[in-house]
């Protein structure tokens, strides 16, 4: 008596754990620093886990790197705009 063929193995979600999604940094920089760049960072951060579970390891790593990059861009823009605002406010107060 022949046995039926074994079922195929479940799809592999990749070896190890997914790359970091940097979602906390994305949210923090969106709220505290620069809204447009922070939103882009959140979008990329939200894609990491779903791409990893779908088996798209390269896409998950790329989204993770993009989320980190945009969080840094948002933080830097927030610091630059804050510094400009501070110096303009100080210049306005010195003339009074």
Structure, described:
With 96 residues, the protein is mainly α. The protein has helices at residues 23-32, 35-53, 57-94. The longest helix is centred in the last third of the chain and has 38 residues, at 57-94. Helices cover 70% and strands 0% of the residues. The model has no long low-confidence stretch (mean pLDDT 90). The chain contains three helices and no strands. α1 runs antiparallel to α2 (35-53) and α2 packs antiparallel against α3. It is rod-shaped.
**Percentage of residues in DSSP E strands:** under 5%
Tally of DSSP helical segments:
3
What proportion of the residues is helical, as a percent range?
55-70%
Shape: rod-shaped
| C-alpha-based Rg, rounded | 22 Å
As residue ranges, the low-confidence spans are none
Mean pLDDT: 90
The first-to-last residue Cα distance is: 99 Å
Secondary-structure class: mainly alpha
Find the count of extended strands (DSSP E, 2+ residues).
0
- H/E topology pattern: HHH
Largest sheet, in brief, is: none
Compact summary:
The chain is mainly alpha-helical and about 100 residues long. The chain is about 70% helix and about 0% strand.
Question: Would you spell out the secondary-structure blueprint of this structure?
Answer:
Elements (H helix, E strand, L loop, with lengths): L22 H10 L2 H19 L3 H38 L2
Helix pairs in contact: 1-2, 1-3, 2-3
